[in-house]
Amino acid sequence: MNDPVVLIQDGVKRYGTKLALNQVSLTLERGMRCGLLGPNGAGKSTLIRTLTGILRLDEGKVSVLGESPEAARSRVGYLPEERGVPRRAKVGEWLAFLGKLRGLTALEARTRASHWLEKVDLPGVERSRCRELSKGMQQKVQLAAALQHEPDLLILDEPFSGLDPVAVQLLEDLIRAASDRGATILLSTHLLPQAEALCDHVLLLRQGQTLASGPLQQVLAQGNPKIELRAETAPPHAVNTGDERWIIEAQDSTIDEVFREAAQWPGVREIRRTGRQLRDFFSEDADA
User: Fold this and answer.
1) Which terminus in the chain has less CB density within 10 A, N or C?
2) Chain centroid, CA 137 distance in Å
């Protein structure tokens, strides 16, 4: 039986008296796309730094591709939230240097650098210095650096931050392509629509603890069905979400009746049924 790509069992990490991770567990197999979600301070960055070998757990077990995070680094691609490239370095030379660090030959490293610069829509910039590129272009260079050695595990920390819509679509396509070839993806993002569209698994953290974890559809199925509508006044039991929009939560056994009653409410302009969404976890967190 193959080892999981990512395995964290009862992980605990402390910063002084603060618990950054409190008994967090995560198992990811080959080809999974997992969204790592939670508000600021939830423990997402700590978990990522543990998987990349930057930090060590105080308690619990962690392995990456059946090895320690440090031993597995050459098989991991990592796009950190903190953006930055060596400003004076030439783009192609820097990418080739990183490729060689990850086990590529000099020829492979140069070839992969050119190939992946084209894949991220930056053809012909190999001889440019990083400082000559815009911030968005520099971010694409970092993405190429994370992908060029075709890692078995790709960790992306807020990868959509600062990207225009065209670049967002490009990144989504690259994530799906990496997954299709068998790579496992761990995606940390505040953009919940992207997480729902891209991920088949989720780990939601709050104050270092697991709020929800598992296959996306199973996690979403934990909640009750809802009715979303637009109306000038509130129907019975509705919660306002802004701009004359309302949500009514119902049970499976009563959803049909509640929907009929809501549809007959005076001034209803739009109405539809929905299931639970990832944003609901954040709303519940805010109300707690």
Assistant:
1) N
2) 21
Scan for tokens 């400082």, then name that residue.
Answer: 131
Q: Which residues pair with 203 in a beta bridge?
A: 36, 213
Model confidence over 217-266: pLDDT tens digits? 888 877 677 888 899 888 888 888 888 888 888 877 788 888 888 888 88
Q: Which CATH superfamily is domain 6-213 in?
A: P-loop containing nucleotide triphosphate hydrolases (3.40.50.300)
> Model pTM?
0.83
Q: Using CA atoms, how far apart are residues 34 and 37, in angstroms rounded to an integer?
A: 9
**Token code pair at residue 233:** 């006044």
Closest CA to 285 of 45, 42, 43, 48: 42
- Residue 232 corresponds to which amino acid? E
**Which residue from 260, 235, 258, 233 is spatially nearest to 244, judged by alpha carbons?**
233
Burial (0-12, 13-18, 19+ Cβ within 10 Å), 23: middle
The residue among 101, 106, 141 whose CA lies nearest residue 122 is 141
